[in-house]
Amino acid sequence: GAGVSQSPRYKVAKRGQDVALRCDPISGHVSLFWYQQALGQGPEFLTYFQNEAQLDKSGLPSDRFFAERPEGSVSTLKIQRTQQEDSAVYLCASSLAEYNEQFFGPGTRLTVL
Amino acid sequence: SQQGEEDPQALSIQEGENATMNCSYKTSINNLQWYRQNSGRGLVHLILIRSNEREKHSGRLRVTLDTSKKSSSLLITASRAADTASYFCATGDYKLSFGAGTTVTVRA
Question: Which of A4, A41, A45 sits opposite B96 (nearest CB)?
Fold first, then answer.
């Protein structure tokens, strides 16, 4: 496709469940970013990949959050033992290079009950 | 933590009117970006202004940047119903830091 795609678009999890969120970046984009957006707030940076290398994970809120991009294309954000405070929209973005414009996907809305 | 702060939090205008929103930030920047987010959709990049630029135009959008005041403004001229959205400013080279946004409602 032409843009960044994310799946699923909506995810409901029971507290304590593990979830996996997928991001398909624009083909050829080297850089990939994950952001978390709480209701009524702007997105907050979680982590950044350049190809398959995770260069910055300073925004991950806890060690329950893990991201990977093993082949330098598709990325997965995994949240283990979900908590209610993890409820948010998770946005993925990609760019041609580190400092270029970031193109965002539609996000995955995670609700933890 | 969010570096940028948009003002006002919400804005309601009549179709055809202009809408202005402001962004203030805390630390020095290389560039500042504005994004739009429609309800339930992802962020769309609107415009990037570099620290050595004072004003930039894109269609009906005009962005100004005052690095001495650490502030930027976004003006939407001749607003349309389709401009109804939340608008965010973002700073940072790769690790974007967003404000809480301005919600703009354009009434028909």
Answer: A45
